[in-house]
Amino acid sequence: KAGVTQTPRYLIKTRGQQVTLSCSPISGHRSVSWYQQTPGQGLQFLFEYFSETQRNKGNFPGRFSGRQFSNSRSEMNVSTLELGDSALYLCASSLEGASDTQYFGPGTRLTVL
Amino acid sequence: AQTVTQSQPEMSVQEAETVTLSCTYDTSESDYYLFWYKQPPSRQMILVIRQEAYKQQNATENRFSVNFQKAAKSFSLKISDSQLGDAAMYFCAYRSEEGANSKLTFGKGITLSVRP
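^ Those are the sequences you sent over. The predicted structure of the assembly is below.
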């Protein structure tokens, strides 16, 4: 089975712009979670989607949003980019619920100038 | 809220030797899952091992094993016969079993280097 894929792998944006990141889960997986990784804050949970619905949300401002499509693919969007949004954004997929292991994609490295 | 603590930021081990990475967590829940993930320089997070809190037996995966002490809220990872490819950042993570919550709470990570 193919693993979790994320596109693009690298992005450079300027402050004030918006960005959309994409994640394709492992085939058959219905849950997709997003995490932000920075040197200062470590790995932080952004949100989780299951069956096209946001099931859980972390403590991030409303500039961070996401969605999930009927094929379980997910996108996250960050509007009005700030320098502090520079990070590695990781997507993870799992079958359904809390008992299922999450498998991670390679991440998208976002740099905000 | 649950917290995960990895107090050692860095560790080093000689190739073929054994190393133990420490992790403690804080929770008021009785059912949960614990994980160790490895993140090599490629930044891809790779699952190393998983432990269900209701299981008393410690999980093992080839050269990797855990020492799960539920009462002490401790979850250490032992790597036996260390290999150069084990060099990476290792993260301990917690996940609740309550509801459908799939959120992982991570520790700060520990950088493991392997000396040839």
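Chain B has a mean pLDDT of 93. The radius of gyration of chain B is 14 Å.

Shout if you want it in another format.
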